[in-house]
Amino acid sequence: MSAALALLTSVLYGVSNFLGPRISQDLPVFAVLIAGQVIALVVATLLALGLSDGFLSGVGGAAALAAGVGNAVGLYAFYRAASEGPLSIVAPIGALGAVFPVLAGVIAGETLGAVRGVGIAVAVAGVALASRRPGGAPIAPGSHPVAWAALAALGFGTFLGFVAPAAASDPLWTVAVSRVSLLAVLLAVAVAGGSPVRVPVAALPRVALPGLLLFAGTLAYAAATTLGDLSVVSVLASCNPVVTVGLAFVISRERLSQGQSVGVGLALAGVVLVSAR
Fold first, then answer.
1. Residue 46 has pLDDT above 90, yes or no
2. Cα–Cα distance between 85 and 145 in angstroms, integer?
3. N or C: more exposed end of the chain, with fewer CB within 10 A?
4. Start-to-end C-alpha separation, the chain
């Protein structure tokens, strides 16, 4: 069940990552991110109030807030990296955030086994290759896309790692509370940079969809961490670039490069190995 929930996370995140950039072509990026997360916060809070019997412990609450901050840092750093350098460099580095919770799980005493260890390595390599975009633009002098992409990986890895201890207290409240710190950081960055955050009322249904998909994916991931090893769940949940690339190929008629095709195959093979018992 934990593997199925983690893979569901990848599907939901992958669809959201496909739809979000398409919507942001017509609306400001921060407006899309913030408006979508506001709606997700409202839905998450209502679900937590209606379905949860408890709340987060002190440690769980702190972990949820840290997860939200990590998620916000990852999003901001990734977009900053993509604006300064080619995605062929940025995306593979950002996708490797799954390595951090894997290391945390092993340090905490989780046992991988040879087959799962190979599966994790293959899946991470596959995600990196599938995320690679050929033909990137040259890096402008004074830009630091690799450093920003590394920060994005650290942010996403922080998010993946801190969700687990928070979800041990309550998965629903973990998602809701993490959205509070996520929104706080995004709003602070948007205001500091003078970026517009308003969206037309008529655009709210479109804007809401990516945010709700991210919310559902995070809820699935939080539940998965309570049922399986963090080192395995985090890798399976990080296969979302495979979904995004697949949607771009089918819907947008984008052609996969040879490297991306190999990456999709490796990611799927890694999923099979990681899921093996």
1. yes
2. 5
3. C
4. 12
